[in-house]
Structures are given as C-alpha cells and as structure tokens.
Design a protein that fits this description.
Blueprint: H1 10-18, H2 24-42, E1 45-48, H3 50-59, E2 70-74, H4 101-108, E3 112-117, H5 151-158, E4 164-169, H6 175-181, E5 184-187, E6 208-213, H7 216-226, H8 244-248, E7 256-259, H9 271-286, E8 290-293, H10 300-325, H11 336-347, H12 350-371, E9 376-380, H13 396-404, H14 410-417, H15 419-428, H16 435-440, E10 444-451, E11 457-464, H17 469-482
Parallel strand pairs: 2-3, 7-8, 7-9
Antiparallel strand pairs: 1-3, 4-6, 5-6, 5-10, 9-11, 10-11
Helix pairs in contact: 2-3, 5-6, 10-11, 10-12, 11-13
C-alpha cells in the first residue's frame, strides 16, 4: 500500500507514476483505502465503481499529464457512460449512455475516475444535505456542513481521498465548499470549460464547471487540459497567452486590488472573517500590490431577486425535462424546497425572465466599470465559516406555507409578501460574495488562507476580469508560496 498517498498533490502523484515509483493500481488502492477509512464518517462519496477503475488501468489509461491519478465526479452534471446519475435527488433515475464533453477531457488527461461525490438536490442548496443520501460532514468538524453544492468533492479533497475532484459553480458552488473545507477552488470564466453535449450553458450562463484541489498548480494544470470550445458552444472566448500552469508558477506583476467589504446580499459577516480580510490586504501590500477600498455600485435587493427569478425558471424547466426525458423518474419525490422553487419559476412570465436578464446586465456593467480601475477584486468568499447541519435548508413548516399558497403569479405575490426574504435570505446571505462571479461570468477563486479561533477554515475570494484566469492563478500561486495555505485536517 502506498502509505504516503495523501501527502502529495495530483501532479506529484502523476510524476511518481511516470518515474515508476508507484503504479496506477497502487494509487487507486490507496484512494480506495482512504475512502474506506473516511467515507463512513464523512459520507462524501455516494457511488463507487472500483472494479471499473481497475479495468481502466488494465485497458490502459491515456498518457495525459494526470495519468493514473484517482478522481471523483460530482454527481450533478458530469455524464459518465454506464454509471447512474442521481443529482442528489430521489426523483431522478437515469444511466447515461455517453460521456459529457468535460468527462471526455478528464479521461484524456489520464485521470482514473472511480466514484461520484455527494451533492444537494440538483445543486440548489449551498449545503450538501440531500434527503436521498444524507448529509456530508466537514472533515474539519463532524456534524458541520461542507458547503455546497460541490460539498462532497471539496470534502473528499480535504480528507485526502483524492488530491483533486470535479465541481460546478452556479452561485458559488465551487468556491463556497472550498472556503468551508479549506481547499483551493476556482470558477473559470463563462465559456472557458465545455458544458455539452446536452447544454450550451446553464442557469443563463451562471454555471461553470472546474475542480477543487489541494494546490494551485493542480487546478491550473487541469484547466490546461479541459479549456476550449466545443461543438455548438454559445461562447468561444479568448484563449490564454500561455499555459495556466506556467502562470501559477510565476509571481504576478504588482496589481491594483479593490478591497470590497460590503456584502451584495443582506447578511451578518463574522468579525473573524473581516479580520482575515484586513490581514489579506496587509499581506498583499507587503508583496508589492496596491490595495484600495472600493465598492460595487449595484441595486443589491434587485440583484438577488433577479437571481431567484432566473434560477426559479431554470428549475421549473429542469423538472419538466426530467419528467419528459428520463423514464422512471418521478418529480413528485423532489424535496419541498425544490418543488417550491419550481413552482415560483412556473409562475413568473417570460417578461419577468427578460427583465431579470436586464438586471444582470446592469450588474455586469457595474462590475466592468469597477474592473476598469482595478486588476482584481478582493472580498471574503463566505461571510462565516461552516455552520452545523440543519441551519441552511428551508424548514418543512416554511415549505408547507409556500405550497399551501399555490396560485397564479405566486412568485410575484411572494416577493411582495416578504415570505421569500424569510426563506431565501438565510441561504442567499451566505452567497453574498460569490453571486457576483456567476451573474457576471467573471473568473474568481477561493484561496484557503484562514481558520477561526475554533479551527474552522474560511477562504478569501479574488475576482478578475473576463478571461483573466492566468492572473488569478499567478496571484494564488504567489500567496501559496509566500503566505501559505491553511492545514488540512488530520484524519485517522
């Protein structure tokens, strides 16, 4: 058994394998042993296909930069032919006959995919506590949330089951669990990674897929493997000037950094998080960067309301597609909060959706105006560190109140009634800093720099201009080398 497995990042594991110091089979055995030791208490992996992974080794893994490295897919959008996809839901029953384009690129990179990670139902809640599979536990503290919706993947990396794992981000779902689990997570620019073949974009362009990792260089090297247009894609964005990996290995030029304290959704920010923000600004200044206080000029209330309109409409459309296209599925088994969101989405008009998109453009314009004066925006990733299970999903009573109110135009009526604020803001408030990246499509990352006095990690977020992932990787690499990332948990 390769006992040192969890001490290395993905690139070093691949290098060891290339030098013949460890075999792909030994790497897989080490990952499976780590999963067997950790998963019963963490519940981060919900479907394993170890025999298939062994056969992939026998058949010969492609000679990519990550050849032989064990890898897990978030069980949401990644189609892996022959393996069931549940999307965290009791409603869905489906086994795809094809790989999604992103999975094809993961395979070409040489990754050995052996399991699926836990996620909330359809990725809708920012904590990984689905009714179907039960809650995932934060490796830093049992009984605490991993964040979501890529919580299973983030926790698998933090626990040392894999050095790198797939994730997706529609409102912070890579960065949020990266912050709470103490790992690195980057959401790439809109259109950087493929979404097909089933989708050109998701949530009106808000969703982007990438990975969570222990190190910056793993994330950068992986984006080198996966980035680029695909057949039928709605975007073909500017390619990088060099490799993302090369960017991660060099220091950036002195940067103009906008320090943004104010949250974009009403919420309370933990004083320890604000202290971490101040310390980050001081560290950046010491590294030669210019940090100035600045704020984004947007209508904050309208921003989160527009987000709810768009996501509600998308969820309504998703349930319709599931009912139509996936025989054996039963949307009546969806969780109450999902039904409520879909019901709201069905009640909004096409004009409501268009108006919300106009609202998003205003936010994009405001972000562009701010980025004209700065290279990077600095703010917290999350307003708090991880919270105990049960605090974030809507309670059954609130769900029942919404369902009992079913009528035409319920969405707008609920917006006026104040009930939506009561239900949505406890969740949306935790996304107060991450939503901006999804609405604008800008690349952004959570960097694991701090822990609270009680030992729970939280990250700092950096947002750059469109197609500026190289700048972000360069800055993250500098922070990793000069400041250092927080320690991962020591699990038996």
């Amino acid at each position: 058994m390769f006992s040192e497995y969890s001490q290395f990042d993905a690139m070093e594991l691949a290098a060891l394998a290339r030098r013949g110091e460890v075999s792909a089979q030994e790497l897989l055995d080490a990952a499976l042993a780590r999963a067997a030791a950790c998963n019963p208490q963490l519940n981060v992996l919900i479907h394993s296909f170890a025999d298939r992974a062994r056969q992939q080794i026998i058949d010969g893994l492609p000679e990519g930069p990550f050849q032989g490295v064990p890898f897990v897919l978030k069980d949401l959008m990644a189609m892996f032919a022959g393996e069931p996809i549940c999307m965290g839901s009791r409603a869905l029953s489906y086994t795809p006959r094809y790989d999604s384009e992103l999975v094809k690129r993961y395979k070409a990179a040489g990754l050995n995919i052996f399991a699926k990670s836990n996620t909330p139902e359809f990725g809708l809640i920012i904590t990984t506590e689905p009714k179907r599979f039960g809650p995932s536990h934060n490796p830093h503290r049992q009984g605490y949330s991993t964040g979501g919706s890529s919580g299973g993947s983030a926790a698998a990396v933090a626990a040392g089951i894999v050095p790198i794992a797939h994730g997706g981000d529609g409102g912070g779902s890579i960065r949020f669990p990266a912050s709470w689990c103490g790992v690195f997570g980057l959401k790439p620019s809109r259109g950087r990674n493929p979404m097909g073949p089933d989708l050109g974009e998701d949530w009106q362009g808000a969703v982007a897929e990438h990975v969570l990792s222990r190190t910056v260089r793993d994330s950068a090297a992986m984006l080198d493997c996966t980035a680029g247009p695909e057949l039928g894609a709605p975007y073909n964005i500017r390619p990088p000037e060099g490799s993302f990996l090369a960017a991660a290995e060099r220091d950036p030029k002195p940067l103009r950094i906008a320090l943004c304290r104010e949250s974009l959704v009403p919420t309370d920010v933990d004083p320890e998080v604000l202290t971490g923000l101040e310390q980050t600004a001081e560290q950046l200044a010491a590294l030669g960067h210019r940090v100035e206080e600045a704020e984004l000029s947007v209508d904050r209330d309208q921003m989160w309301r527009d987000f709810l309109v768009i996501v509600g409409a998308e969820v309504a459309g998703l349930l319709r597609r599931i009912q139509r296209d996936y025989p054996g599925s039963d949307i009546r088994r969806c969780e109450p909060s999902t039904k409520n969101l879909a019901m709201m989405g069905r009640s909004f008009s096409a004009a409501d959706l268009v108006e919300a998109r106009y609202g998003w453009h205003k936010v994009q314009r405001a972000a562009g105006e701010l980025m004209a004066d700065y290279d990077v925006i600095l703010c917290p990733t999350t307003p708090t560190a991880a919270v105990p299970h049960g605090q974030l999903p809507p309670s059954p009573w609130e769900a029942a109140q919404m369902l009992a109110s079913h009528r035409m135009n319920i969405g707008r009526a609920l917006m006026r009634s104040g009930l939506v604020e009561k239900m949505a803001l406890p969740v949306l408030g935790k996304m107060a800093y991450t939503l901006l990246g999804n609405i604008t499509g800008l690349p952004c990352m959570s960097v694991p720099l701090y822990k609270t006095s009680t030992g729970l990690p939280f990250g700092m977020q950096f947002i750059a201009g469109m197609c500026e992932e190289e700048l972000l990787f360069s800055l993250a690499g500098q922070l990793e080398r000069e400041v250092g990332f927080t320690d991962l948990p020591l699990l038996a």
